[in-house]
Amino acid sequence: MYIAIAGNIGSGKTTLTELLTRRYGAKAYYEDTDNPYIGDFYEDMNRWAFQLQIYFLGSRVRQTLDMLSDGADNIFQDRTIYEDAYIFAGNLHQMGLMSGRDFDTYMKVFDVSSSLIPKPDLLIYLKASVPTLITQIQRRGREYEQNIDEDYLGRLNDKYNDWIDNHYDGEVMVIDKDRDDFVEHPEIFDNICERLEQLRAELSKK
User: Fold this and answer.
1) Which residues are bridge partners to 78 per DSSP?
2) By CB neighbour count within 10 A (0-12 exposed, 13-18 middle, 19+ buried), where does 130 fall?
3) What are phi and psi of 91, to 5 degrees?
4) Could you report the average pLDDT of every consecutive run of 10 residues in the chain (206 residues)?
5) What pLDDT, in 10s, does the model give residues 154-195?
6) 34 is catalytic
7) Nearest-angstrom CA–CA distance, 31 and 11
8) What are the distances in angstroms from CA 205 to CA 115, 120, 122, 171?
9) Cα(128)–Cα(19) distance, rounded to whole angstroms?
């Protein structure tokens, strides 16, 4: 199974990836948080938006190609290449923080890259309101995230919901993090695993 975990900043992607990896003895691929532009970006988004997103895109392409050549039976990926383009780069362009020229260049690179990569067997979308995101961001304590603007997170949420509801054409499981906390309530996590078992059975028949 190739399972991808999608969601806004602070939605719990890494936590769910860790839990699923332990449950299935699987291979995990985490989002690269060592982007050398990320601290500068949060200080001056207009100046560093293009560099930030190109680095993330390159990192995601490299990770996905490594992932596909690994040969593992079960793979869990923390965030996808699609989110880099349709959510984050698209939002920065819409906000006027990435120029039209830079965005066009970015999307040309993305189009070539995404054509080489298959869709996940299942995309798990962690949907969360801005207050929930803020609480989780503060709890994990990454210094460069502490001053994230709430309006920025709200814009990303709008992008995510539009992408999931109207554009993404793969299999999706939505987890409402405001209501269904898979850390505090293990039965929620068990429900996620039941869906994965159904998926594995379906894939084995193909």
Assistant:
1) 5
2) middle
3) -65, -45
4) 93 94 90 84 90 91 84 87 92 93 95 88 96 87 71 94 92 95 92 95 86
5) 999 999 999 999 989 999 999 999 999 998 899 999 999 999
6) no
7) 13
8) 26, 17, 16, 17
9) 19
The C-alpha atoms of residue 135 and residue 130 are separated, in whole angstroms, by 9
pTM given for the model: 0.88
Query: Cα(176)–Cα(94) distance, rounded to whole angstroms?
Result: 26
- Listed in sequence order, the residues at least 6 apart from 126 whose beta carbon sits closer than 8 Å to its beta carbon are 5, 6, 7, 8, 11, 12, 13, 16, 175, 177
DSSP secondary structure, 86-142, as one string: IIIIHHHHHTTSS-HHHHHHHHHHHHHHHTTSPPPSEEEEEE--HHHHHHHHHHHT-
The residue from 34, 73, 78, 162 that is catalytic is 78
Residue with token string 């060592």:
34
Nearest to 167 by CA among 112, 63, 90: 90
- Tell me the CA end-to-end span of the chain in Å, nearest whole number: 12
Separation CA 19–CA 67 (nearest Å): 19
* Structural domains of the chain, ranges and CATH numbers in brackets: 2-204 (3.40.50.300)
Tokens linked to 205: 């028949």
